[in-house]
DNA sequence: AAGTCTGATTGCAGCGCTGCAAAAGACTAT
DNA sequence: ATAGTCTTTTGCAGCGCTGCAATCAGACTT
């Protein structure tokens, strides 16, 4: 039993297939009477357009892909949760990909390859790819990059002002009277742009307060996750002169750090104050609740989707722009204590 | 500048388009010399097949959709992280959808509607739909259901033995000497099957130990999240006779409950032991670490994908089966204390 | 040497839709 | 009544690929 096609509907309604197509797509001018006839026929036959055929005819898939390093990282899943409805609203479906931060995988994705045409555009949150890697890519693919890379002019970049945000976080620690402030999460190598910006904010806040930076208090980690946070915190505590506050480059890192502190019988924030970054839901429910920098994820999602739609819709190349979403400092128990 | 097509390759290689297609798809028998010729031509022209055209010709999209209620719920994002690679391995791309548990949205998804043909099959984790709702659906859509519904014979169901798992969790609480055990998460209404199975396990464990169940210790919640867990725990503590242990229907609920306990200055597990369900990553890093029931997510993902592939590949209807993945009890600090 | 068989290759048709531009109708102005 | 204008509808062709069945070439039988 064949599915009903445009042609079937056309026959029943007594019009041409093209007219049915016009009705279905809301295209062009169609008289009300014709429209009604067609709609009645559609209803009667239970016609549903064949997306595959439409895709081939239009050369578009109506899908975008969102690529994140890790799906089970709360920040990304929360972001995704914001992107999907925004895309759907624009009439697009969302494919999801995770790369595990693998540079090869990431590179293969932006060069399209076998999955060409499967999606009309990409929202990409790179991890393993450096700024430079991003530039050698299939220029035909409309691309919006999230995170901390900067645009090379061929794609858009949406992010928050990481330096300002990080600086605000550290200034907050200074304001509550901390004097030995550590940073956990630095990544001083090409793919560590995100981390490096936060380190710059860390320095900026010190400079603004007229404080020197103790370089030995900047601890590197491979990833921004709990284990790394816990390990780095342990290393800090094993020193002769442990810090009295830590700026963690993600809430997960913060959560790991807090874990270590509590395990050693130290109090947060009395002994060591902690501030994170990302404002993941977890941070609002742990104990203590985690002070953090909250990027406006909804704004990021909406902006990214809007720009991507614009790129997809435009015949000629759209110059890439830098777009900043808002962020704000949210002090919670891990710096202010129980209220 | 047109993209190169099969025809271009055929011309350059001096063979028919059909032969090129055969080479590309690894179909049929092709002599080594022909294959080489074709492959050389492909490389020379940088030919990449047009997925859209292939989809139309074959009537398949090479995509499956995974539908979950909430993407930012760790259990689902962890599950998704397991499903995506499994599907990719089988040559399928994964679309992701979240329904917010909205019954209307869920219903529209399983009835296919406008997105017909966009995916060849669906892995669906229902929340708002009752058993009955599931049965009125587009039978043509290959479907594998996750979670706690049971198959009506037209789709496969993959889950763990919830009753046994819940019972094991509660038995664990009994074994460590607890006498007043509460349950947080019951949902005594049609769409609450998941919760009800856990409640049955709760009762079963009591029965097995020859203990009566105090019905007033079974607390309902609208969702399985932190807030609900925290609220329910507070209600329990406000009673004259609070429990000394709680079986929480998810790790998030457990996390919320622990939050309340600690906030009130109670100790976990000394004053109240807590066990959760799902084994999300968070539970391994919080303080205390959360004892839990760990469903084998990798097995669930693999089984679901395998079954779906089988359904997609089969011309005639495949009878639906019930498949059980393994689970195990993982005692951690929230029941055993610090070691 | 003719007949048979096996495996490699090919041609045709069409998947169901839309872009394009032309045709048909409706209406206005002369 | 006729030409001109604008709106609505239509026909054609083709997006690039694969299913199917037929064809062809070579090897093997008798």
Strand-helix topology:
Two copies of one chain form a homodimer.
Chain A: H1 6-13, H2 17-25, H3 32-45, H4 51-58, E1 63-68, H5 74-89, E2 93-98, H6 103-110, E3 121-124, H7 131-135, E4 143-146, E5 156-160, H8 162-175, E6 181-186, H9 193-208, E7 218-220, H10 226-237, E8 245-248, H11 251-263, E9 273-275, E10 292-295, H12 297-313, E11 322-325, E12 327-330, H13 333-336
Parallel strand pairs in A: 1-2, 1-3, 3-4, 4-5, 5-11, 6-7, 6-8, 8-9
Antiparallel strand pairs in A: 10-12
Helix pairs in contact in A: 1-2, 1-3, 5-12, 8-9, 10-11
The structure holds a DNA duplex (30 and 30 nucleotides).
Walk me through this protein's architecture:
The structure is a homodimer of 339-residue chains. Chain A has helices at residues 6-13, 17-25, 32-45, 51-58, 74-89, 103-110, 131-135, 162-175, 193-208, 226-237, 251-263, 297-313, 333-336; strands at 63-68, 93-98, 121-124, 143-146, 156-160, 181-186, 218-220, 245-248, 273-275, 292-295, 322-325, 327-330. Chain A is α/β, with parallel strands linked by helices. In chain A, the strands form three sheets. In chain A, strands 2-1-3-4-5-11 form a six-stranded parallel beta sheet, covered by helices on one side. In chain A, strands 7-6-8-9 form a four-stranded parallel beta sheet, sandwiched between helices. A two-stranded antiparallel ribbon of chain A has the order 10-12. Chain A is elongated. The termini of chain A are far apart. The interface between A and B is large, with 47 and 47 residues. The structure holds a DNA duplex (30 and 30 nucleotides). Chains A, B: InterPro entries: HTH_LacI, LacI/GalR-like_sensor, Lambda_DNA-bd_dom_sf, Peripla_BP_I. Chains A, B: GO terms for molecular function: DNA binding. Chains A, B: Residues 4-58 form the HTH lacI-type domain. Chains A, B: Pfam families: LacI, Peripla_BP_3.
């Amino acid at each position: 039993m064949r599915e009903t096609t445009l042609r079937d509907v056309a026959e029943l309604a007594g019009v041409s297939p093209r007219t049915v197509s016009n009705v279905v797509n809301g295209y062009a001018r169609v008289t009300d009477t014709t429209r009604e006839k067609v709609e009645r026929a559609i209803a009667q036959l239970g016609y549903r357009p064949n997306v595959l055929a439409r895709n081939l005819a239009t050369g578009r898939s109506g899908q975008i892909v969102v690529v994140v390093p890790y799906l089970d990282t709360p920040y990304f899943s929360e972001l995704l949760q914001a992107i999907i409805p925004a895309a759907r609203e624009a009439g697009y479906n969302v494919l999801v990909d995770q790369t595990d931060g693998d540079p090869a995988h990431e590179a293969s994705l932006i060069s399209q390859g076998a999955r060409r045409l499967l999606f009309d555009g990409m929202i990409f949150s790179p991890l393993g790819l450096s700024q430079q890697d991003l530039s050698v890519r299939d220029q035909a693919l409309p691309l919006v990059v999230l995170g901390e890379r900067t645009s090379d002019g061929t794609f858009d970049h949406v992010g928050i002002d990481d330096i300002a945000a990080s600086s605000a976080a550290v200034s907050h620690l200074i304001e509550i009277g901390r004097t030995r402030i550590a940073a956990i999460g630095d990544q001083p190598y090409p793919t560590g742009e995100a981390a490096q910006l936060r380190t710059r904010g860390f320095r900026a806040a010190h400079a603004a307060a007229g404080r020197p930076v103790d370089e030995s208090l900047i601890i590197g980690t491979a990833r921004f996750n709990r284990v790394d946070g816990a390990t780095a915190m342990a290393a800090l505590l094993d020193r002769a002169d442990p810090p009295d506050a830590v700026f963690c480059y993600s809430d997960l890192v913060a959560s790991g750090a807090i874990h270590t502190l509590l395990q050693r019988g130290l109090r947060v924030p009395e002994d060591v104050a902690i501030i994170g970054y990302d404002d993941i839901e977890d941070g609002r429910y742990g104990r203590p609740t985690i002070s953090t920098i909250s990027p406006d994820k909804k704004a990021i999602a909406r902006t990214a989707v809007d720009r991507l739609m614009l790129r997809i819709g435009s015949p000629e190349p759209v110059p890439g722009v830098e777009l900043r979403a808002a962020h704000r400092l949210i002090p919670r128990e891990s710096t202010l204590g129980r209220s």
